[in-house]
Write a structure and sequence with these properties.
eight-stranded mixed β-sheet
């Protein structure tokens, strides 16, 4: 009993201490506080009952949503997936015309907007904001929003992580009181999964995108990291992406209108913020080139306008939720008001030529420009415990000029073939391509064909698993032409299709989100056949006697490679590789390129 009491005391102390040592909080009372329902409102959300200091659990959330949907004919709710632990992933559809199927929504002249909360379940602002917004659409005088657009809302995407909840989930975040966990029940991060599709949550979103074809996709998060004045930061692929016309629309039209709405309601919007030195912004803000494993970049390569919201973790939960509400409401108005321009941008990006594609980006050689940064004053102190210098945030507003470090310089381009081929034994990857919605031609009978294959000459594996995979860290390739017979069930992936760029990203080894770099082809690095030395010795003697050119190359290699000259094993392996007995598929990546 004494041990249990001590444990509970330490837990309470840890929570109190963590909140007490967070940086000083700037005072805030924005106009958006008027959006919180009166306690007498029968449709007050569970979060509002606590003045937005708490957020409901899965069961309470779903019960409230079901009750709301049942109370109005303009809402419907569908299960779009089931989590690893068996929980339903639910989506609410809002349509004034009661167009609740994908086919009906496809015929609607209105834009379709998809948004979700809880892809990282401790970052749950989108759920509570979405509940409030839908309540106000149904019963709070904002029904006109559905005259402008149809909505798809997933309250909780990572439902299992949402239920791994406690007061000790995110030490650097100001609420809600009880928070969920970042990853799912298998400890996988859903927002690193949009290319490999190993999680039920990411799969559910991709299937919704395929089925419903939304016109805007919004993924709501909460940041980690440094302190600053901004409460709602958000971003999209602004440069160095695959949808330049969409990026221009988001930059020139969407962002100014949304920013102004946030300011009008008492919030401070800003871009995505990542301190270059991982401490403060004295050395600049980094604009990373996210790869398509992330939700908003996945949207970009599909030519779907996509936004990543990152509310500031050091701002109170109430402030963050209300900012998200304003963002979502204005996003509906802006997309509806400019729907023709959105459609034209999407059409233009889909029509881009596909002769080559950038599959890797690097930082520019110099900062692009500087930004006026609404910062928080800080100082450095030396720890008496570790001797390390660390940042102390002082809770005082400052304005700085901060360099913008952009990671949008093309670092590696690939030529795009007419098609890719993958053999039927890689059926798990063929299934992933199908899930993405990529068009495939499946062989009904064997086919002989000449294709170009990449072969790995040198490689280095990652030193530890990343998202459950052993990634290929670095490598060099050579290309070789081969005539092979592909069995029935093998797949041809043409690149002249709507998702052709996505196919390139998945199939080209140099792409940082390729199936190869994710480790799906790691078995090609294993040699399973070998020769005994008592066979090799007489065979080598015969080879040297019959082939003077081989003997010359052997002598040259010994002379120029001291390690080789000292290693009988290396010599045996070298000669073995010169024989027809050697595994011709060793280190050959089984993705064939069709050029003609």
């Amino acid at each position: 009993m004494k041990i249990r009491l001590l444990f509970l005391f330490l837990l309470a102390s840890a929570k109190a201490s963590a909140q007490a040592v967070l940086p000083p909080l700037l005072p805030w009372n924005g106009k958006s506080e008027s959006l919180i329902a009166d306690p007498s409102n029968p449709w007050i959300t569970p979060g509002e009952l606590s003045d937005l200091t708490e957020s409901p659990d899965y069961d309470e959330t779903m019960a409230w949503c079901e009750k709301l949907v049942e109370a109005t004919p303009v809402f419907a709710m569908n299960q779009i997936g089931k989590s690893e632990q068996g929980r339903a992933i639910q989506m609410i559809i809002a349509s004034a015309d009661q167009d609740f199927t994908a086919a009906e929504l496809a015929q609607s002249p209105k834009p379709l907007i998809l948004f979700h909360g809880g892809i990282h379940a401790g970052e749950i602002d989108g759920k509570d904001a979405g509940m409030m917004l839908l309540r106000d659409i149904a019963f709070g005088g904002k029904r006109e929003l559905l005259n402008e657009a149809n909505l798809l809302f997933i309250p909780i995407l990572n439902v299992d992580g949402h239920e791994r909840a406690s007061e000790f989930s995110r030490v650097n975040q100001r609420g809600p009181k009880i928070m969920g966990w970042r990853t799912n029940a298998r400890n996988l991060n859903l927002n690193r999964d949009f290319t490999k599709i190993e999680t039920a949550g990411a799969k559910a979103v991709i299937e919704v995108i395929n089925a419903y074809d939304p016109d805007l996709y919004v993924d709501v998060h909460v940041t980690d990291g440094a302190d600053y004045q901004y409460d709602v930061t958000y971003g999209y692929v602004k440069t160095g992406g695959y949808s330049p016309a969409i990026s221009e629309f988001l930059s020139q039209i969407f962002q100014p209108e949304v920013d102004q709405a946030l300011k009008d309601w008492g919030h401070i919007p800003g871009p995505l913020l990542f301190a270059a030195n991982n401490e403060d912004f004295s050395e600049g803000n980094v604009a990373f080139s996210f790869s398509p494993r992330f939700s908003h970049t996945y949207g970009d390569i599909r030519h779907l306008p996509s936004i990543l919201i990152e509310n500031h973790s050091l701002k109170p939960f109430k402030q963050r939720v209300l900012g998200t509400y304003i963002f979502l409401e204005q996003a509906i108005w802006t997309i509806a008001d400019h729907f023709g321009e959105v459609q034209e941008a999407v059409k233009k990006d889909k029509a881009q030529a596909k002769e080559s594609l950038t599959v890797k980006y690097a930082f520019r050689d110099a900062p692009a420009d500087t930004m006026e940064f609404k910062g928080i004053a800080s100082r450095k102190e030396t720890s008496t415990i570790t001797g390390n210098d660390y940042v102390i945030w002082e809770g005082k507003s400052i304005t700085q000029q901060v360099p913008s470090l952009l990671m949008d310089k093309p670092a590696y381009d690939v030529s795009v073939p007419k098609a890719y081929w993958i053999s039927s034994e890689w059926g798990n990857l063929i299934d992933k391509l199908k899930t993405h919605g990529i068009e495939l031609e499946i062989l009904s009978s064997p086919k002989s064909i000449t294709l170009e294959f990449p072969k790995v000459t040198t490689y280095k594996m990652g030193t530890q698993p990343y998202e459950g995979k052993m990634r290929v860290q670095s490598f060099e390739l050579e290309k070789e032409s081969r005539t092979i017979t592909l069995p029935a069930g093998s797949a041809r992936i043409k690149t002249d299709q709507a998702l052709g760029e996505l196919a390139v990203i998945l199939m080209e080894p140099e792409s940082v989100d390729s199936f190869f770099q994710w480790g799906y082809f790691n078995t090609i690095f294993s040699q399973t056949e070998y020769m005994e030395t008592y066979i090799m010795e007489p065979l080598i003697a015969q080879m040297l006697q019959e082939n003077p050119e081989l003997k010359s190359r052997f002598e040259e290699k010994k002379a120029t490679d001291p390690e080789f000259a000292k290693s009988p094993r290396a010599m045996y392996q070298w000669f073995y590789s010169q024989t027809p007995y050697f595994d011709q598929n060793w280190k050959v990546i089984p993705v064939g390129r069709e050029w003609d």
